[in-house]
User: Fold this.
Amino acid sequence: MAGSRFAPDRGLTGRMALTMFLLVLVYVAFIVGLVAVGLNIWLVLIIVAAFALFSYFSSDKIAMFAMGAKEVTPQQAPQLHALIDRLCAMADMPKPRVGIADTDVPNAFATGHSQKTAVVCVTTGLLRRLEGPELEAVLAHELSHVAHRDVTVMTVAGFLGIVAGFLTQAGLRFAVFAGASRGGNNNGPAPAVVALLVVVVSAIAWGLSFLLTRALSRYRELAADRAAAHLTGRPSALGSALTKITGDMARIPSRDLRQVEPFNAFFFAPAFAKGFSLNSLIATHPPVEKRLEQLSEISRQLGRGA
Assistant:
């Protein structure tokens, strides 16, 4: 976050480092496990490396395509660009690309593997619902994700989760195939048993990494709220935007909410279909009440400072 005026967050930095360290351990464990059950190490490394490079360098394009978002120019969205220009000048940070997704779900997200490839995207539903100061506060929240580089960590973490799921399925299929092909041969340990043991250990490790990633996701949202509130000096505007978005989410058709649910970890506020709930361990965001309470405390602190 060198050169940015967003307040540094050591807690976020430490959590990102720990999350990445443990996720890399999980990643290595999967590769070692597949090699241990008989797969060619070079084949595994080539496949994983190719998938990793594609996912890493195309993360912004994949997210924009999946959301149906398009990059917009200053001529196409002058007011939106003007707000981001102003915030980037205030934060002393490079301006990311700007996108708009045509959906009535009121939300915003930032994606990209670096500040140079970052994209801040808002939905048409958000633009219709928020006033100028509220929209500015939400954009500041998303820009802080880019400045803190936690959007990069979440992009990598998301890739590791996909690879973990893919390799777990591969291990299970290998176990089934090995068991079927072995037949009545009982010489030595069964490859199917070895493969299943690897799957069990990997699944446990993936489960722990999943919870760790979710914990990081919740903390980074609080960190972004703090950074945006201090940069704009209007925590009440961010609180108002959060209240509007979460309140209007209940009026959105369940079909539309389900379509965007896979992006909840990147959204400003989660989009859940009606009747769907998550407990505090696997939620991508902290409770709205906790976020509003933090913003109220920042407002009091700024008031005392004034």
Observations:
- The beta strands are 69-71, 97-101, 108-111, 119-123.
